[in-house]
Write a sequence for this structure.
């Protein structure tokens, strides 16, 4: 009877699973059918659209691969795509459509913490798994964690720890100047970095907050940095804002006079800043050159990506998108069901390996524990075709060594 | 003290960019009584055309191509869409030009992608100049100087040419302009195209400073409107004063409490509108007509 | 007339069915709301989207009260939408986490946003066009800044997630709106269980709001708002306090938008700062304009179409925003009909211009018109008096040192060469402009600083040099508006009562029309009248304000000689019951009509006296001959 309810709704698992989960969510469980729907909620317009578009490429690649091999437990993956414009309300509306209209069993995507938080809250309410993709702010798996939300991407805490560990020997006692995007992610990065480097003797001269969104001219902030003559200049901006800010910093000669830190980078930001990214230190959860040379899974992904999208290499956002699909597949197959409770139980307790080293999610906060790279930019002339290959890896930090200790978490996870 | 001096210098350069965009906006309003919300779109088109041409031919070619392309676009827009709206309620103009801005922004996004683009400066322009205690990027100073020259040219155009006469008359006496009749139509098209071309030129010239993305136009439009309103809609010197004031205000606010550096310009505009709605240098008669 | 519906004419037809028009309207709308989510289903929508559309429609309706009805384009309505959402969220999270009550949260938010709108409106409603739009934007940006910075309350840009699920207290029940309707398969229209009680609730709220707006549009308040949008200057000088009406509209608009924002936050269970951002403000503009601002259902339709596109099309093509933009521009360029009134577009003349000959004026005095007041001609009290009155524009003194005195019942002509300052002088007396020197006394009281609108209510009325009419309304409606202001006062926000119920207003308007010989053209659109009828209608409007002094600025200018003589007779007739001041160049009329004459020259009084005295005054002759032909005086 329930099966006739709607078009896109998936159905899977056993009769037992049906009994357990009926009434809990918008899905219906009965005899196995052919399809499940996954919601891909990524920015295709707005400041973070490059990141979003690259994620979408990777999602489509992973889904194509999986469907070619028979899908997840025999169910073909259908997608429901939405442009979240990096606006939280839009992201939320998209996710609602994916769940209510298309019967999505899992939502993934996003290029900002702001959108991740709203989608996370909605998915919790709707009893749908949310595999948050590119969200770097701590809140996603800390203050605003949810039972249904998993984030594999490094958080700001991990980046800050990694950066600090690599740099503190060289710049630990120097003068640090911060230019920080005035929103949750920026504050979280700033707090984390200062908390690590100040006890080692680093002196924070000033933190200038830039209005977000909408700052185009960073000159007033950069002038202050110039006057302060810092040893280290931290530019906590992301996407197009980071490109603008770093390029303008170069105009003020700051890329020459100070060591520039950018807490998080990917291929597209590095491309936008061209030679100005030379020598800039940053972190990335993943870097195609490095990982493809070390892990067969990564190499397979990079090759497949470049084959499907000639001339392109996957950014780290694309990688996490790709992995998210495979992780979900793994979890469903291990659980033998798409029942969220069972999938969550598997995700909380399973170690897996796809495009990196062996990794896992912590059950306390659903933060992915995996390595964080500290990278340093190289000049454009040394980069590969299409400007891909932007950095050399300075150091790789083990995820377990840089992740926030459980004792310090403010995460209050809902009961299972 | 140095910090303040620096902030003031930075504010001057920022202010000059606002002035350059606002001047086009204000002469278009003064002459055609058109509230042009699509003015930011001219800036964005100029930036993209400048970038594309500059990357293929060179910076100078980009600076020449951008205003020409934008002027042509503006003339087509004027002929095809805007003309019937010149004599209508300003609210209709606002809505229409708002819609045009929307269409242009999305077209740019489809053509060039959402990617942030930036034209890299040639090596010889990358240096910085020493001004007293501070180092300032040479290109920004060059840009500021260029804007001042541009403003001078616009001012000479307004004061010394026949078309300029129409601009001046339009600002002061709308009815007289209407009495001039037939040739006013061509003149107003030219003024419109010129105002647009200025925005296009500024867009191209600023693209080595600020990278370009499809929403760039709107990002500069709103502050420019604030500038025009603060200075006095339709007033050339009002745009100059307003632009410098807003630029300085933003720059100095950044020094004091940076998160407020956006909202401060709205606060400033609100105060001006409440206490001197015609703007600092505006003529009170203008506000009743608009 | 009222924009909402074609049926809202001054004389409603008798109902054809047993149900009243309001009940039929409610039933048809309710039926539409029942079908809406079902019909949305086969074309790619879903019940959740339907719910969102209905909730946001309430905000668009609120926004449109300003744009469509008051003619004010706000670019800051996100401050009410986002503000309402935040207030509701904070009320629930802080004050009633244990017993979340939807009514308290939503009504609290509505009250707070209404107060915000009242405060912002008080500062903004005196501005127009781009100035109004930018000032509302400025306030919205400030509210946005406060929300973003007020981290302890609003949680900064993380927004407030997990707002408690508020229940609807109805008597002893507490209804959980997330409950789905009973399951029932409707084939291609989905399943009833897809629809939650939230939809039903939103539909009921929208229906109430629509009924409210329908009543408001047809009410006296809606009628006056319409009049102010069409011709604010005339409205002020028939005695409406335009700013108060705009402020009332702004407050209602803000409250509706805030209510909608609150419902949306409660429905979503979360709110983010983007709900108060500039893009949100822009979206209301798009919704309303696409839907059609002059219609009751326009805002709902526009919201539905655009939200549908955003939600469904965005999944299909990245060009969806371009499509949205093209639709928006297309509507403005190609479908201006829906927008015709706010843009004051002149419609093609649907009527032939009436040319009539005038009957002889009636001679009986009019019982409806107020007597001139306590004083009689020759009594000690002047009705209007100015002392050293002056008005300078910059360095140019348009009027200076004018000492002027008129006795009750007098018919005084004010003459002078062009540029003598006659119209400026009238504007000073009527209160169109404020003097820069001197005082004006009316019945002994200083009224120099009294607003034009108040002066109308005290009995000073003005007919304009160029007929100043509600050109899109009929002659009768023009006069009724003036009568309404006179009887109901400068500000009577009757949002439910229709003015058609007011018999005294009708009677007063009828008398004014008949006094000016406008019988036979009562139902002609004012813009289609002949020149002479327009001028007489302007006087009739002034007359319907029940004046004690009537200021007529060149009442016969441009009329044929025949028409001018007849109008002169009408004016003479009026002067039997009130004081009349008249500016006129027609010297034949001036000499024949007036009791006395004041000559202005170069902004000040040159001479005052009887027609004979003035004709004999050498200085007057010199002044006229200085600038004008002899013929003008000798005429």
């Amino acid at each position: 009877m329930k099966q006739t309810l709607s078009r896109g709704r998936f159905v899977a698992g056993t009769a037992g699973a049906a009994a357990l989960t009926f009434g809990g969510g918008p899905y219906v469980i009965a005899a196995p059918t052919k399809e499940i729907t996954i919601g891909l909620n990524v920015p295709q317009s707005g400041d973070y659209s490059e990141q979003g578009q690259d994620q979408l490429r990777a999602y489509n690649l992973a889904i194509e691969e999986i469907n070619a091999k028979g899908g997840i437990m025999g169910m073909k993956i259908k997608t429901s795509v939405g442009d979240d414009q990096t606006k939280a309300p839009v992201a939320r509306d998209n996710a609602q459509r994916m769940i209510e209209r298309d019967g999505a069993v899992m939502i993934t995507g996003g290029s900002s913490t702001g959108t991740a938080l709203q989608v996370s809250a909605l998915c919790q309410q709707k009893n749908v798994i949310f595999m948050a993709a590119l969200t770097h702010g701590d809140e996603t798996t800390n203050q605003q964690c949810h039972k249904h939300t998993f984030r594999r991407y490094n958080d700001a805490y991990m980046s800050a720890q990694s950066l600090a560990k690599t740099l503190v020997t060289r710049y630990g006692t120097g003068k640090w100047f911060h230019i920080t995007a005035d929103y949750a992610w920026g504050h979280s990065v700033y707090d984390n970095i200062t908390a690590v480097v100040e006890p080692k003797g680093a002196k924070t001269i000033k933190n200038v907050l830039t209005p977000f969104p909408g700052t185009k001219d960073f000159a007033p902030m950069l002038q202050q940095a110039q006057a302060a003559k810092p040893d280290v200049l931290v530019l906590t901006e992301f996407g197009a804002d980071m490109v603008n800010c770093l390029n303008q910093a170069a105009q003020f000669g700051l890329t020459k006079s100070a060591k520039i830190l950018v807490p998080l980078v990917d291929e597209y930001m590095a491309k936008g800043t061209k030679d100005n990214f030379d020598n800039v230190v940053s972190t990335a959860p993943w870097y195609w050159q490095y990982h493809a040379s070390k892990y067969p899974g990564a190499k397979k992904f990079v090759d497949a990506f470049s084959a499907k999208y000639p001339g392109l290499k996957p950014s780290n956002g694309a990688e996490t998108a790709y992995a998210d699909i495979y992780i979900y597949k793994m979890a469903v197959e291990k659980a033998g069901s798409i029942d969220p409770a069972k999938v969550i139980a598997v995700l909380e307790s399973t170690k897996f390996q796809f495009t990196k080293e062996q990794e896992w999610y912590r059950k306390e906060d659903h933060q992915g524990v995996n390595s964080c790279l500290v990278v340093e930019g190289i000049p454009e002339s040394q980069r590969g075709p299409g400007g891909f290959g932007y950095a050399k890896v300075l150091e790789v930090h083990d995820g377990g060594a840089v992740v926030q200790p459980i004792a310090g978490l403010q995460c209050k996870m809902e009961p299972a | 003290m140095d910090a303040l001096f620096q902030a003031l210098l930075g504010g001057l350069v920022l202010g000059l960019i606002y002035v350059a965009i606002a001047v086009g906006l204000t002469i278009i309003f003064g002459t055609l009584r058109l509230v042009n919300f699509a003015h930011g779109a001219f800036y964005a088109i100029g930036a993209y055309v400048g970038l594309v041409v500059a990357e293929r031919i060179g910076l100078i070619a980009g600076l020449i191509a951008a205003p020409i392309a934008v002027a042509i676009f503006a003339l087509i827009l004027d002929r095809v869409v805007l003309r019937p709206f010149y004599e209508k309620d300003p609210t209709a103009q606002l809505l229409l030009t708002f819609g045009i801005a929307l269409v242009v922004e999305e077209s740019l996004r489809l053509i060039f992608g959402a990617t942030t683009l930036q034209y890299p400066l040639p090596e010889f322009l990358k240096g910085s100049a020493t001004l007293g205690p501070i180092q300032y990027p040479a290109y920004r100073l060059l840009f500021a100087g260029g804007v001042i020259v541009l403003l001078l040219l616009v001012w000479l155009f307004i004061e010394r040419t026949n078309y300029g006469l129409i601009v001046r008359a339009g600002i002061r006496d709308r009815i007289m302009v209407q009495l001039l009749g037939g040739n006013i139509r061509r003149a107003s098209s030219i003024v419109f195209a010129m105002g647009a071309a200025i925005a296009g030129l500024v867009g191209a010239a600023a693209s080595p400073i600020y990278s370009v993305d499809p929403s760039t136009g709107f990002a500069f439009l709103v502050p420019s409107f604030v500038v025009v309103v603060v200075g006095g809609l339709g007033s050339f010197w009002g745009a100059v004063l307003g632009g410098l004031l807003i630029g300085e205000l933003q720059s100095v606010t950044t020094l004091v409490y940076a998160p407020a550096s956006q909202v401060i310009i709205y606060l400033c505009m609100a105060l001006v509108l409440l206490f001197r709605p015609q703007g600092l240098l505006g003529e009170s008669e203008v506000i009743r007509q608009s | 007339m009222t924009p909402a519906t074609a049926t809202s004419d001054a004389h409603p037809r008798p109902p054809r069915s047993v149900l009243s028009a309001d009940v039929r309207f409610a039933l048809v709308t309710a039926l539409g709301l029942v079908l809406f989510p079902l019909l949305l289903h086969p074309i790619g929508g879903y019940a959740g989207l339907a719910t969102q559309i209905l909730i946001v429609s309430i905000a668009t309706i609120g926004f449109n009260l300003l744009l469509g009805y008051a003619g004010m384009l706000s670019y800051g309505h996100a401050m009410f939408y986002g503000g309402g959402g935040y207030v509701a969220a904070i009320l629930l999270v802080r004050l009633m986490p244990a017993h979340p009550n939807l009514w308290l949260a939503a009504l609290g938010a509505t009250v707070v946003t209404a107060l915000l709108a009242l405060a912002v409106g008080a500062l903004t409603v005196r501005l127009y066009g781009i100035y109004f739009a930018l000032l509302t934007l400025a306030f919205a940006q400030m509210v946005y800044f406060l929300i973003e910075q007020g981290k302890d309350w609003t949680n900064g840009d993380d927004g407030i997630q997990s707002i408690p699920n508020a229940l609807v207290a109805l008597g002893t029940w507490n209804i959980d709106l997330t409950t789905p309707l009973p399951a029932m398969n409707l084939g291609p229209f989905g399943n009833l269980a897809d629809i939650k009680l939230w939809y039903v609730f939103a539909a009921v709220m929208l229906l109430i709001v629509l009924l409210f707006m329908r009543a408001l549009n047809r009410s006296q308040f809606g009628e006056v708002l319409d009049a102010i949008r069409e011709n604010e200057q005339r409205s002020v000088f028939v005695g409406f306090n335009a700013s108060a009406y705009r402020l009332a509209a702004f407050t209602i608009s803000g409250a509706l938008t805030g209510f909608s924002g609150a419902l949306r936050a409660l429905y979503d269970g979360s709110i983010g700062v983007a709900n108060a951002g500039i893009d949100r403000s822009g979206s209301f503009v798009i919704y309303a304009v696409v839907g059609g601002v002059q219609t009751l259902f326009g805002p709902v339709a526009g919201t539905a179409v655009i939200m549908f596109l955003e939600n469904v099309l965005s999944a299909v093509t990245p060009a969806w925003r371009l499509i949205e933009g093209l639709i928006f521009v297309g509507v403005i360029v190609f479908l201006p009909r829906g927008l015709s009134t706010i843009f004051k577009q002149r419609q093609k003349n649907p009527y032939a211009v009436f040319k009539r000959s005038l009957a002889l004026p009636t001679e009986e005095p009019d019982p409806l018109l107020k007597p001139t007041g306590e004083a009689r001609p020759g009594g000690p009290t002047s009705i209007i008096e100015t002392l050293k009155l002056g008005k300078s524009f910059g360095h140019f003194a348009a009027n200076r040192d004018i000492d002027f005195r008129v006795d009750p019942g007098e018919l005084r002509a004010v003459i002078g060469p062009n540029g003598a300052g006659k119209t400026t002088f009238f504007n000073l007396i009527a209160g169109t402009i404020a003097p820069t020197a001197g005082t004006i006394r009316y019945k002994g009281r200083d009224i120099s600083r009294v607003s034009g609108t108040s002066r109308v209510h005290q009995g000073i009325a003005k007919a304009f040099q160029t007929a100043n009419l509600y050109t899109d309304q009929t002659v009768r409606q023009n006069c009724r508006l003036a009568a309404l202001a006179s009887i109901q006062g400068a500000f009577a926000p009757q949002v439910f009562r229709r003015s058609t119920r007011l018999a005294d207003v009708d009677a007063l308007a009828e008398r004014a029309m008949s006094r000016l010989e406008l019988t036979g053209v009562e139902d002609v659109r004012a813009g289609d009248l002949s020149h002479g009828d327009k001028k007489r209608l302007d006087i009739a409007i002034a007359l319907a304000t029940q004046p004690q002094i009537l200021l007529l600025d060149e009442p016969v200018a441009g009329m044929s000689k025949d028409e001018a003589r007849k109008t002169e007779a009408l004016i003479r007739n009026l002067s039997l019951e009130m004081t009349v001041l008249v500016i006129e160049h027609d010297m034949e009329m001036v000499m024949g009509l007036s009791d006395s004459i004041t000559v202005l020259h170069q902004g000040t009084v040159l001479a005052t006296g009887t027609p004979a005295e003035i004709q004999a005054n050498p200085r007057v002759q010199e002044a006229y001959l200085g600038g004008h032909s002899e013929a003008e005086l000798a005429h």
